[in-house]
Amino acid sequence: MGLASSQAEPSSFAWRWPIAFQGIFLIVILVALPFLPESPRWLAQQDRLDEAMGVFARLEGKGVGVEHPSVVRQINDVKASVQQELLLGSASWSEVFTEGKNRNVSRVLLGAGPYMMNQWCGINSLAYFLPITFERNIGLSTQLSLTISGILGLQYFLVSWLPYFFIEHFGRRKMLMSSAAACCFCMIMISAMLALNTTLSQWVFVAFTFLFFDGFSLGILPVSWMYASEIMPLRTRNKGVALGAASHWLSNFVVVYVTPQAIQNLGYRLYIIWAVLNASFVPITWLFYPETARRSLEDMDEVFLNERFGITKTRSPGARVDAGHDVAPARN
User: Fold this and answer.
1) Tell me: the pLDDT tens digits for 38-68?
2) Closest among 258, 272, 266, 280 to 128, alpha carbons compared
């Protein structure tokens, strides 16, 4: 859309139309919202337990009724959690920053981590300045730079749908670590190709830019927007996730603000910095981040009650009850 608009006569239309076009997706979301089920935890808070059980049954898949063991277990967990919340009342900001037995501060820090990884992997150092990078760093024409950027943007959009099909199977930790490792390797290659500065290396740079976006889309991107909401206790969930999102956008501002000067002063060395940061995400995730896949919010409460701050032992996806039979708990 941006590429097509750039071909128009010089006017404000070239930037107004691509921005306005995004409103179409907002309309689609607004139309779809009435058809989305309510949160079963909210329904339980409103004492609409039958509806909550119906939502859990739908989430389990076809053929699962409200009497299924998995549905019964989940509704019982949620009822107990909601009753405890009603007794304690709403959480204050001071509680969010108090560790306590629920490890609130630990959860806020762990929840903010993937949000910050999303930015400090270097994605927007490339994405925000992609046409300029292609044009100035490797000498492509303005038209070709815009065309390649448009193709990359479309590929980025399509690949970002793929984790939906397997993120629950592989788990958040494996996806995040694999993605960070792939992004690290791509940044090393991007830096090396810019340093070589040959005709061949310029096109290899373009290829690894595409691969970087793919690697980012398959792990860091989806996990960063999921993880905080999956580990926060219900009482502090809204505030904790808000702090994580704030850390994301603050990091976004810093990265985008410093990138133009960094490109000018550091050149290819800037991408070495991103490679080192991506490499650091792998041991950080392995050491400190418990696996949330196939675990409810109540399950995660148990994880944080049983583990003190430090190296996690919850490294595998949790157990779940499938339609018609039980699955043995995953070993950590």
Assistant:
1) 988 889 888 899 999 999 998 888 778 888 8
2) 258
Q: How far apart are CA 249 and CA 255, in angstroms?
A: 10
Residue in this structure with the two tokens 């046409």, named with its chain if needed:
131
pTM of the predicted model as reported, rounded to 2 decimal places: 0.86
Alpha-carbon dihedral angle through residues 196, 264, 221, 291, given to the nearest 10 degrees: 80
Determine the Cα–Cα distance for residues 228 and 225; give it in Å rounded to an integer.
Answer: 7
Task: Say what the pLDDT of residue 224 is.
Answer: 96
Q: How far apart are CA 217 and CA 205, in angstroms?
A: 18
- CA torsion 120-126-128-129 (nearest 10°) is 140
**Contact 244/160 with Cβ under 8 angstroms?**
no
pLDDT bucket at 242, cuts 50 / 70 / 90: very high
Query: What is the Cα gyration radius of the chain?
Result: 23
Q: Please report which confidence band the pLDDT of residue 83 belongs to, taking 50, 70 and 90 as the band edges.
A: confident
Dihedral sign from CA coordinates of 232, 164, 285, 299: positive
Count of Cβ atoms closer than 10 Å to residue 84 Cβ: 12
CA pseudo-torsion sign 27, 30, 35, 41: positive
Residue 142, CA distances (Å) to 3, 130, 139, 260, 267 in order: 11, 11, 9, 18, 20
